[in-house]
Hints:
The structure is a single chain. With 103 residues, the protein is mainly α. It has 3 helices and no strands. It is globular and about 50 Å long.
Amino acid sequence: WTLITAGGWAGRWDLSIGSMTITPERMEKLYFSQPYYTTPAAFFVHQDNTTYTQPADLSGKKVGGCSGCTYEAYIDGTLSIPGETIDFVVTDAEFAGYDTDVP
Length: 103
């Protein structure tokens, strides 16, 4: 979303369609429609794993998230969505890269 929120469109397109969390900072640069769906954050473990059963179990663990997205802000404890309260914040999280063969 960095390119889109930076405004570097250079006349290449007039609009963007995608799943972007509406934040005060993004509203300063973009016009948003009314939200038409929401997707909650979730974490998944193998069915045989009994170590992680609730978000608090992730405290101090390595948690992956996309750079520059609201998941990163959530993990950092800096996410602010007007009208919403965050009940749980992951602290002391580390970000690590993940390489794939997928282009």
